[in-house]
Sequence to fold (215 residues):
Amino acid sequence: MKRDERIERHRMVEHQIRDRGVSDERVLTAMEAVPRHLFVPPDLQNVAYGDHPLPIGEGQTISQPYIVAVMTELLAIGPGDRVLEIGTGSGYGAAVLARLADEVWSIERIPAVAAQARENLRAAGVENVHVVVANGTLGLPDRAPFDGIIVTAATPSVPDPLFEQLADGGRLVAPVGGRDLQYLMRYTRHGTDIKQESWGGVVFVPLIGEYGWED
Ligand code: SAH
Fold:
């Protein structure tokens, strides 16, 4: 019997995400719509809806569904918004963001990972994500400001250029801390003031480069 991805996705949303407290219906609907199995390597498609991150090659991972949902909820984006993601990885997170915002710019430093992400996004029919190969710690000054900026790799501190590219009222979500454990932080810009909130502990692969760690 063929697996029914829609049923698996519905279970994922109900048991891994809603039951744990993510309540933004728009986020839940987006997670229910994006075909996560198209963003993992073919031999892992049968476990694509499990409650864990998965390897995607080049030492990188696709994040656990619950963490994608939490970060997306914290980012609080909506129609008309422009979003910047640092760390495209599989492209899955970008695909979820793309259902909520107008336009998503996503930066990936490893060309082969970016190429696969573009292919995954095409296969999933996502058209409003632009994948850029670059060092994401510098952001995308030419496209700034952004209403939401999401960093999906661990960083010891938020790179200054990213704060500079955040719109007034914009939110920046990032795992900040050491190499082995980080705190998921949300920063909200009000003029020159930045409000800071901590969600809790998380573990991400490292952000490489200036402001991050050495390769
Ligand atoms: N959001 C992804 C998961 C990201 S994994 C998903 O939904 O699948 C983190 C990614 O960040 C990896 O692909 C890694 O290569 C990338 N990365 C690390 N440092 C980076 C940098 N300085 N600039 C851009 N991408 C970076």
About this structure: DSSP finds six helices and nine strands in the chain. Helices lie at 5-18, 25-33, 65-75, 92-100, 111-123, 160-164. Residues 183 and 201 are 5 Å apart (CA to CA).
